[in-house]
Amino acid sequence: MARATVRVLGVIFLILGIVGFFISFDDLFSLTLNHNIVHLLTGIILLAASGSEASSALVAKIFGFIYLVVFIVGLFTQDILGIMLLPADDVLHVIIAAVLLYVGFKSASVTTNRTKNTQA
After folding, report:
1. Residue 12, class by beta-carbon neighbours within 10 Å (0-12 exposed, 13-18 middle, 19+ buried)?
2. CA 95, CA 88: separation in Å to the nearest integer?
3. pLDDT, tens digit, for every residue of 8-18?
4. pLDDT for 59-70, tens place per residue?
5. How many whole angstroms separate alpha carbon 108 and alpha carbon 17?
6. What is the DSSP letter of 28?
7. Per DSSP, what are the bridge partners of residue 80?
């Protein structure tokens, strides 16, 4: 489950990173140069980590935590390292965090249970 989710989100982030250079979503999202670069790097990292279920679960937990922190910080400021955050960004960040944390921990628990059952 984590592998597929991480792979799909990786593709989405790459597309957003590329599209953000050409199309402005200023009324809804603030996609600056820095924001687009973050999307591109996130997409590349997610795709690179989607080779196995274990690496996908790990990167899902890491990026889930990162996006949760970005959401929390975004509640108190609209500028993080030159990246403008609007309310829609905050909502999207908390959704991404929840999805990634869920699949990361769910996948890890399923893998752990399979390992225990195999050893028994």
Report:
1. middle
2. 11
3. 999 999 999 99
4. 999 999 999 999
5. 29
6. T
7. 83
CA dihedral 46, 50, 56, 58 (to 10 degrees): -60
43, 11 contact by CB (below 8 A): yes
Give the residue among 35, 38, 40 at the shortest CA–CA distance from 14: 40
Q: Which amino acid belongs to residue 28?
A: L
Tokens of 94: 């908390």
DSSP 27: T
Please state, as a whole number, how many other Cβ atoms lie within 10 Å of the Cβ of residue 49. 22
pLDDT digits 0-9 by tens, 32-57: 888 899 999 999 999 999 999 999 99
Q: In the numeric block, which tokens belong to residue 15?
A: 């597309």
Taking alpha carbons only, the member of 72, 69, 54, 56 closest to residue 10 is 56
d(CA 63, CA 68): 8
Q: Residue length, the chain?
A: 120
